[in-house]
Amino acid sequence: MVDVGDKAVTHRTAEARARVRMAPETLAAITEGRMPKGDVFAVARIAGIQAAKRCSDLIPLCHPLPLTSVSVDIEADVSLPGVTISTRCRVTGQTGIEMEALTAASVAALTIYDMCKAIDRGMSIEGVELVSKEGGASGDWRRGDSC
Q1: For residue 54, what is the domain's CATH number?
Q2: What is its EC class (predicted)?
């Protein structure tokens, strides 16, 4: 791993998102609570939070971080049709938290796919991206700003 021992401890926040496209009937089954495996959004939210907490076990060379906050919000979007997943992770530490936010979004999306695949194998996971980061030596960044 990269040595971050000399880096200052700062407050850091990262936000990420992902989308899962699906058939309109699949989205309706989720939002109407008709999925055989239960509450898709609740399970995906828990999976995303757990993934952020275990990011260093999943991503090689990723530093283990003592997360202070993780949120996973999931919204139905009939215009896709599908769902949009938004994550936010916070830490007070010596290295960034972008990977935790991205991992939370990715695993939440994969969980939605897993829970719905029996009725819709044509779903697609797309648009996994960092939305913003705050704190750290490189400063703040927001999607749409110049890199």
Answers
A1: 3.30.70.640
A2: lyase
